[in-house]
Automatic annotation (TrEMBL):
This is Pyrroline-5-carboxylate reductase. It comes from the Bacteria. Its main location: cytoplasm. The keyword Cytoplasm applies. Residues 165-269 form the Pyrroline-5-carboxylate reductase dimerisation domain. It is found in: Cytoplasm. One of its GO terms (molecular function) is pyrroline-5-carboxylate reductase activity. Coiled coil: none annotated. InterPro entries: 6-PGluconate_DH-like_C_sf (IPR008927), NAD(P)-bd_dom_sf (IPR036291), P5C_Rdtase_cat_N (IPR028939), P5CR-like_CS (IPR053790), P5CR_dimer (IPR029036), Pyrroline-COOH_reductase (IPR000304). NADP(+) binds at residues 10-15, 73-76. It comes from Fictibacillus marinisediminis. Residues 6-102 form the Pyrroline-5-carboxylate reductase catalytic N-terminal domain. Catalyzes the reduction of 1-pyrroline-5-carboxylate (PCA) to L-proline. The gene is proC.
Length: 282
């Protein structure tokens, strides 16, 4: 077990649960080191307590007072209220990690009235099983040791890439939202499998293993994805016939637009919830 500090999740929704589950499963934190608070959904807190045996708090400010590391995990639209509610409990020794899409570290520092270190991270829900692809950027008050601490935390629930803060919009469009694109593809493959008379269980197993195999191949081989694709595609064969349909429906263009639009939306969220007077808007 890593000697870790107490971690408070402010916002106890889907992303918080993915991280909590990953941190506990990977033994970076024990349940008693984790405390979660949300706005008002007590049922949700009790559910997390029952499932993971973590501590819960009806007051976000109390959770902050108990912890050394804070994970901000509310929706961007709720950030202002949430950060106001914990502001008085923040001190300089806190390490603040935000997973909020679009919201800059400068804006968080401004809302919290603090020069405590803030790290902005963009994980994804695969954190729950130790497979998040997380992008990380340091705010202006964060030092090397804070980045290292955040990296250690996120490495425990997947891989971590440190980037400039402006790149986090792209990471959000690509990897933060990424699992949803893959599930969308799976939904379509399952529909096709059903109309080809495969059972849902048979299809799910075949699809999951196919995705796993392709993902491992991408990680283990240096070959360009185009080359890997060509190796599957026999001239005049089944794959070529299938890919012709993807080209016909412009699926490549659709996916490119999807990732770019999601990244753009991250920028929009940042602008929507950051008053023009805030300094250093990213
Ligand atoms: N889901 C994902 O795949 C990813 C999400 N993110 C980011 O994570 C954040 C959370 O997303 P997600 O988990 O999906 O959202 P959810 O809606 O599932 O959870 C949001 C949580 O925030 C709580 N909350 C709202 N207002 C406050 C407040 N004032 N004080 C304390 N807690 C509050 C809510 O509590 P209550 O129910 O009581 O209102 C709820 O528990 C977002 O900013 C998102 O951009 C980042 C990467 C991936
Ligand atoms: O959809 C969203 O806004 C969040 C951020 C990345 C994944 N989910």
């Amino acid at each position: 077990m890593a000697v870790y500090k107490k971690i408070a999740f402010i916002g106890a929704g889907a992303m918080a649960e993915a991280m909590i589950s990953g941190l506990i499963a990977n033994k970076l934190a024990s349940p008693e080191q984790i405390i979660a608070a949300n706005r008002m959904n007590t049922k949700r807190l009790l559910e997390l307590q029952r499932k993971y045996e973590i501590k819960i708090s009806a007051s976000a400010a109390d959770a902050v007072s108990e912890a050394e590391i804070l994970i901000l995990a509310m929706k961007p639209k709720d950030a202002e209220d949430a950060l106001h509610s914990i502001r008085d409990a923040i001190h300089k020794q806190h390490l603040i990690i935000s997973v909020l899409a679009g919201i800059s570290t400068d804006h968080i520092s401004t809302l919290l009235h603090t020069d405590a270190p803030v790290i902005r991270a963009m994980p994804n829900t695969s954190a729950a099983i130790g497979y998040s692809a997380t992008g990380l950027a340091a705010g202006k008050y964060a030092e090397e040791q804070h980045v290292k601490q955040a990296e250690e935390l996120f490495n425990c629930i997947g891989t971590t890439t440190c980037l400039k803060e402006e790149s986090l919009h792209a990471v959000t469009g690509l990897a933060g939202s990424g699992p949803a694109y893959v599930y969308y593809l799976v939904e379509a493959m399952q529909q096709a499998a059903s109309s080809l008379n495969l059972s849902e269980t048979e299809a799910r197993d075949l699809i999951a293993q196919t995705l796993l195999g392709a993902a491992h191949m991408l990680k283990m081989s240096d070959e360009h994805p185009l080359l890997l694709r060509q190796k599957v595609t026999s001239p005049g064969g089944t794959t070529e016939a299938g890919i012709q349909m993807l080209d016909h429906f412009k699926v490549k263009e659709a996916i490119e637009s999807c990732v770019k639009r999601a990244a753009q939306r991250s920028e929009e969220l940042g602008r929507m919830y950051t008053p023009p007077s805030s300094e250093g808007i990213v």
